[in-house]
Design brief:
The protein is 45% helix and 21% strand. It has helices spanning 13-20, 62-92, 103-120, 134-141, 143-159; strands at residues 34-42, 45-54, 124-130, 166-171, 174-180. Helix 4 crosses helix 5.
Length: 183
């Protein structure tokens, strides 16, 4: 759902008051005589809405309403594209199985962190974990059970590390935790 200036799932008292306040030197309060709420939709998916306010009592004409609908459709398309871009960006740095960061992202962040600690003389610790005899787990219980173990291990690592730490799947049954400002 989209939120922000002029874009909200619904317009309530505080938002209306903010929109009613007149900018500039004048302190007199402007009144809202007319308002139009236009939904942002893509293929029957509701993304949010745009609220348009007018100080004039005259109704929005059909041409103005059509223009607002066209603008809302264009804005909805841009918002959806931005959402898909963000989703793709997240998928490109996330391991598909464990839903934690992947090796490529770990490598990029480690290089960044090394540069930072060299510049500011900071501290950095790294833990590399490997599940011993994991092949025998897969051979005995099957790959689906092995996947469940990897998923649960990833979640345990995320749950038991700081927000500032980076938890990533290094490869196979190997995981890495990067801990900035830790010796």
């Amino acid at each position: 759902m989209l939120t922000g200036a002029g874009i909200a799932p619904r317009v309530e008292g505080k938002e209306i008051e903010a929109l009613e306040r007149e900018s500039g030197e004048s302190t007199r309060k402007a009144t809202i005589a007319n308002r139009q709420l236009i939904p942002l939709m893509i293929n029957d998916e509701f993304l949010g809405s745009i609220a348009v306010f007018s100080a004039k009592k005259t109704q929005f004409t059909g041409n103005v309403k059509n223009l607002l609908r066209i603008m809302a459709a264009e804005f909805a398309m841009v918002a959806k594209l931005f959402s898909l871009y963000e989703e793709n960006k997240m998928l490109s740095v996330t391991d598909g199985l464990t839903k934690i960061f992947n090796n490529r992202y770990f490598q990029e962040m480690l290089a960044r962190d090394f540069d930072r600690i060299k510049r500011y003389h900071g501290r950095l610790s790294l833990i590399l974990l490997d599940v011993d005899n994991f092949k025998s787990i897969n051979d005995t219980y099957g790959h689906q059970q092995g996947d469940i173990i990897l998923i649960e291990l990833a979640q345990l690592l995320k749950k038991n590390t700081r927000k500032s730490d980076l938890v990533a799947r290094y490869g196979g049954e190997e995981f890495v935790v990067v801990m900035p400002e830790t010796d």
